[in-house]
């Protein structure tokens, strides 16, 4: 059953969903895309941030987005620590450390999952805010306000991070370390400290991303597993390390998912998303905006 | 695989006084099971286990079974079907348990059915759906109130047709339990000449349901039957509230897993109003039997400490009832002979805290006692409201009914 209205609605909802995917993937674009850290615990960090937001919202009735901002410094420190442990135990020890690093981050992800269960139990948790559960009407078409909020915040987050990485001294240093670590070392800079700082930034943005995650839908301790595929798909499709590419790839994924869900049947959605990834990589192995 | 052995409380042994020496001298009766304590089914698994533990403590306080203490041997199956075959083999061959209880839910239970049939072992089912339909094991007894396979969909469609519903939309999770429900719903609809105008299966991990609900709304159904799992149930209801479902819809719900749990109900609050959904036990007058109130008094206290569902209506009393049925069978046959226990369970009606239970030849209930209830007058962020009657009015079965359907769905939501 084809309807132009349905298709248009699917595209609009897909763009909103895509921006949300960009927000939850952009940290990984830095940690995996730029720093080459096999950060499979990224979605677990994201869920942990959501629980932090839940705690502040539940205890102090703080708006989820403000709560996300409030935990950002803590996440930054957590990111610094996580990278330092990873560097000392794996990265420093040679070229095969990458594979073992995956095991390290898998371990971290499981530990986070168990800690969340011990602290919060296994039930779903959600937050309250006056923009959750309502929608804006445009004639017959209705858009969930939580999706619009996620769209606007995700867009802002991605733009801010892209500007930071391209215009500031530290941002350029992060890009430089991604391109040629040795050259940076020869110039007297400490690439490990820069990478540690960058990993801190990648983790800090999860404060806002985690807030969006729990605004869009309730969270539960094992939710990270649902996002491993999606976030890595977005980052790889974007071109490793490209922030603007992350936004474009996420929107493509969101729109594709939404159109398939609406027009062709929900069971095809994951297959189509990953088929698109394979298609893009076949034509451009470096990803959409990769160099 | 982490082993957790739950010994009967020493205090309970001390209380029984004279009988305590006998309890201490004889080896305990071991009941083995896996239970989802992590993963997607953990919320239900933990509540179910607490119900069974309360039964164990009660029976041990009364002197145990056949003068022996009851001990539970429990492993976490992580909600995974791949874990349970090894766990049950270990329970039988290494731990040498005397009796087996099944884990909560269909997915972890299905893979152990061939094993128990091959070994000729009694298995007390714990809320699986139709796992014995193809295996045909004659020593399987499900504690769930489901009854005949098609009764679930039939009761929902009865209500829908009485409200004037003529065509149906079907939205189901791509998962065994939901697909079993969908299968029977399609069959019943076909027999009654109800056209299915929308039939979508969504994959696990679907994040956003707004697109699906828009497509469903465009099909203009007047019956919407949803078979979903907990994370999705919340997402679907949120999307319905935001996108709307259309004025034609007479009845919405049916098989949404999750809306029976306190945390989900509290999260969704007023979004639940109007939804007609299945349930197993509700705090309505018609649902209290001998021992029901005492059970919930104990459960409510222990649930806080155990960090499990504070209401515990859906699974916990049925875990307790499973123990009650086994206790009655063991005491009546005065043995642990599994064939004898199975014969007793098959041939008798059993008094439990969830009402009388009688089994059909396939080990499911002879008659369905699955409730269809409509949420009414639910407010936001208040778990305690669900302890009072009237928040979920029972529409089916007739003998437990406490009210009539309010239709159409949009009117019932107000």
UniProtKB/TrEMBL annotation, chain A:
UniProt keyword Cell membrane present: yes
GO terms assigned for molecular function: transmembrane transporter activity
Gene Ontology CC, one term: plasma membrane
Membrane topology classification: Multi-pass membrane protein
GO annotation, biological process: amino acid transport
Swiss-Prot/TrEMBL keywords: Amino-acid transport, Cell membrane, Membrane, Transmembrane, Transmembrane helix, Transport
InterPro entries linked: ABC_transp_permease, BCAA_transport_permease
Residue intervals passing through the bilayer: 65-86, 98-122, 143-165, 197-219, 231-253, 259-283
Alphabetical list of Pfam families matching this protein: BPD_transp_2
Main localization (coarse): membrane
Localization in the cell: Cell membrane
Sequence similarity: Belongs to the binding-protein-dependent transport system permease family. LivHM subfamily.
Protein name: Branched-chain amino acid ABC transporter permease
Organism from which the protein derives: Bradyrhizobium jicamae
TrEMBL record, chain B:
Cited InterPro entries: BCAA_transport, Leu-bd, Leu_Ile_Val-bd, Peripla_BP_I
Domain Leucine-binding protein per the UniProt entry, residue ranges: 28-372
Tree of life domain: Bacteria
A Pfam family of this chain: Peripla_BP_6
SUPFAM superfamilies associated with the record: Periplasmic binding protein-like I
GO terms of biological process kind: amino acid transport
Keywords associated with the record: Amino-acid transport, Signal, Transport
Signal sequence, renumbered to the chain: 1-24
Lipid metabolism listed as a keyword: no
Membership in a protein family: Belongs to the leucine-binding protein family.
Protein name, as recorded: Branched-chain amino acid ABC transporter substrate-binding protein
């Amino acid at each position: 059953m084809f309807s132009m209205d349905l298709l248009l609605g699917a595209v609009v909802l897909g763009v909103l969903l895509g921006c949300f995917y960009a927000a939850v993937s952009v940290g990984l674009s830095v940690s995996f895309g730029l720093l080459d850290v096999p950060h499979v615990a990224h979605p677990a960090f994201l869920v942990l941030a959501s629980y932090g937001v839940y705690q502040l919202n539940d205890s102090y009735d703080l708006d989820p987005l403000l709560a996300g901002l409030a935990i950002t410094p803590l996440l930054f420190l957590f990111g610094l620590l996580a990278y330092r442990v990873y560097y000392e135990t794996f990265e420093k020890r040679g070229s095969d450390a990458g594979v073992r690093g995956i095991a390290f981050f898998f371990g971290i992800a499981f530990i986070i999952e168990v800690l969340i269960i011990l602290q919060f139990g296994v039930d779903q948790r959600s937050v309250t805010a006056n923009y959750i559960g309502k929608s804006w009407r445009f004639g017959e078409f209705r858009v969930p306000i939580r999706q619009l909020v996620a769209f606007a915040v995700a867009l802002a987050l991605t733009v801010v991070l892209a500007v930071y990485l391209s215009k500031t001294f530290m941002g350029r240093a992060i890009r430089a370390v991604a391109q040629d670590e040795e050259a940076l070392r020869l110039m007297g800079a400490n690439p490990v400290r820069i990478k540690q700082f960058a990993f801190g930034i990648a983790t800090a943005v999860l404060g806002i991303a985690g807030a969006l995650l729990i605004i869009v839908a309730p969270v539960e301790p094992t939710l990270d597993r649902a996002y491993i595929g999606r976030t890595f798909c977005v980052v790889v499709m974007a071109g490793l390390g490209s922030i603007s590419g992350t936004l474009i790839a996420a929107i493509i994924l969101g729109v594709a998912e939404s159109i398939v869900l609406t027009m062709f049947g929900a069971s095809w959605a994951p297959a189509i998303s990953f088929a698109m990834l394979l298609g893009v990589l076949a034509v451009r192995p470096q990803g959409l905006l990769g160099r | 695989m982490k082993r957790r052995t739950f010994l009967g409380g020493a205090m309970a042994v001390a209380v029984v006084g004279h009988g305590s020496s006998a309890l201490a001298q004889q080896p305990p009766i071991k009941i083995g099971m896996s239970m989802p304590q992590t993963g997607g089914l953990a919320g239900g698994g933990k509540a179910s286990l607490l119900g069974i533990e309360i039964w164990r403590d009660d029976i041990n306080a009364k002197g145990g079974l056949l003068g022996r203490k009851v001990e539970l041997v429990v492993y976490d199956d992580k909600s995974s079907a791949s874990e349970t075959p090894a766990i049950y083999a270990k329970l039988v061959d290494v731990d040498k348990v005397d009796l087996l209880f099944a884990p909560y839910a269909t997915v972890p239970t299905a893979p152990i059915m061939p094993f128990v049939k091959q070994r000729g072992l009694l298995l007390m089912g714990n809320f699986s759906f139709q796992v014995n339909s193809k295996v045909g094991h004659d020593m399987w007894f499900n504690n769930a109130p489901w009854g005949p396979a098609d009764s679930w969909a039939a009761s929902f469609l009865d209500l829908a047709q009485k409200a004037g519903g003529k065509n149906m939309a079907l939205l189901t999770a791509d998962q065994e339990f939901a697909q079993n429900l969908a299968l029977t719903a399609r069959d019943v609809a076909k027999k009654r000449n109800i056209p299915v105008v929308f039939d979508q299966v969504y994959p696990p991990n679907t994040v956003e349901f707004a697109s699906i609900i828009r497509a469903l709304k465009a099909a203009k159904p007047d019956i919407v039957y949803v078979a979903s799992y907990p994370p999705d149930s919340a997402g679907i209801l949120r999307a319905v509230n935001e996108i709307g479902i259309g004025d034609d819809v007479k009845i919405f719900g049916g098989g949404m897993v999750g809306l029976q749990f306190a945390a989900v109900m509290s999260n969704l609050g007023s979004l639940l109003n109007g939804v007609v959904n299945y349930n197993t036990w509700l705090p309505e007058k018609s649902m209290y039997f001998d021992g029901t109130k005492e059970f919930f008094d104990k459960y409510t206290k222990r649930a806080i400490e155990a960090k499990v569902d504070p209401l515990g209506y859906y699974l916990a009393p049925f875990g307790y009832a499973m123990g009650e049925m086994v206790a009655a069978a063991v005491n009546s046959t005065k043995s642990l002979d599994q064939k004898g226990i199975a014969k007793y369970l098959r041939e008798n009606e059993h008094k439990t805290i969830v009402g009388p239970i009688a089994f059909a030849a396939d080990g499911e209930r002879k008659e369905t006692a699955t409730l269809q209830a409509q949420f009414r007058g639910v407010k936001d962020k208040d778990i305690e409201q669900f302890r009072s009657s009237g928040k979920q009015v029972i529409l089916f079965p007739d003998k437990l009914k406490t009210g009539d359907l309010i239709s159409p769905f949009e009117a019932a939501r107000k």
